[in-house]
Amino acid sequence: MGRKLIIKILYIFKEGRLDKLNQSDSFPKEFFYSYDYLKNIDEEVDLIEVTDKSTESRLYNFIDTYFSKFFQISFSTSKLLNIDYLQKIKEAEYIIATNHGLGVSINLLLFLKRVKNKKILIINSGLFEVKVQNYLRKKLKNFVIRFTILNSEKIIFTSHNEYEYALKKLPRLRKKLFSLPFCIDTDFWNSENLDTSKKEGILFVGNNEFRDINKLIEISKSLQDIKFTFVTSLINKSTALPHNVELIDGDWNKSIIGDLDLKKFYKAKKLTILPIKDTEITASGQSVAMQSIAVGTPVIINYNNGFWDKKNLSVNSGLILVDNSIEEWTSEIMNIYYDEQKLNNIAVQGIENIKKNYNQHKFNIEIAKLCGVVK
User: Are 16 and 27 in contact (CB under 8 A)?
Assistant: First the structure.
């Protein structure tokens, strides 16, 4: 029997993961992107967590500040210069950057530090979003994207829509691109004791820039007989909201609201709604939609260019698409909210769809294969 291959895998996360790992409460694993799965296989797996603390290096602070503004990509090179971090980076065979900003940053850092022979995997959602309009800035941003892809082992697209967009833009680099749907921890997000007759109210969850807060408030004003709960940090507490709206400050990365509390909100509501601004390609609302559907609460979301998987959306998905007019939003909400049988049918079908197609185990297996790990 041959010697078992031990592979050093290093994850790079934004803040929030270490707090989760150190807490006693149960929590979902999807935003660990298979870290716990690989760790349990007894592989040499480690992590570093990027916080707001940066180095005193003027060069790297300059890169982070001005490159982030110029390219509209969040650079974090200065936050990776911790001596312990650099040592782990040099030891690692595989480096998994858990968003595209971290992926661009680690590639640039390795180039500047002249560190070679690292296999970099980037979990991506939004790298190809067109946020710059100036011709020169577009050209330079495209150079940064190509540089990042060429120096990575794989770019893992959690949105199949963005994956197809990238293939059209960079067909010669298709071997570097990999489509893997975002999946959720269905052991945590489950639908035990589903009873839609006991549900009440409508939920909104989200903090990213593509959530359409103006449309959200407009919808709540048009349906004042229904109670709305907004879990977000995007609305200032001084904002005038309708009397039927409860505002709860919530941010997963900063642990403002816990997973168990969020799960209770999902389970208690009849519907979750996700008004989304139109983007060029970036998916928004993907994780919230899947979590909500998995616990038995259907989701209504508007058509947008960034919708993550247009081809595989079926009538049995638990997800209802609407045009982004206030009339269609209110009409679709009322048609489902006040029809108990329809609500229950959509909920049950959605739960099965998530279990079958978007459970975390599928994601784990594919990440393990990409890292050369065979269980």
Answer: no
User: pTM for the full model?
Assistant: 0.90
Q: Which of 323-349 are b and which e, b meaning 16 or more Cβ less than 10 Å from the residue's Cβ?
A: ebeeeebbebbeebbeeeeebbebbbb
- Does domain 196-357 fall under CATH 3.40.50.2000? My reply is yes
In tens, the pLDDT along 32-66 reads 999 999 998 877 999 999 987 656 678 888 889 99
Q: Which residue has the tokens 């009873």?
A: 195
Q: Assess if CATH 3.40.50.2000 describes domain 8-183+359-370.
A: yes
User: Which segments of the chain belong to CATH 3.40.50.2000?
Assistant: 8-183+359-370, 196-357
CA atoms within a 13 Å half-sphere pointing along the CA-CB vector of 278: 6
Residue 262: Cβ-neighbour burial (10 angstroms; 0-12, 13-18, 19+): buried
For 81, phi then psi, to 5°, come to: -85, 0
User: 47 near 91, Cβ under 8 Å?
Assistant: no
- H or E segment to which residue 255 belongs: none
Residues 125 and 142 sit within 8 Å (Cβ to Cβ) = no
d(CA 311, CA 314): 8
**C-beta neighbour count of 27 within 10 angstroms:** 18
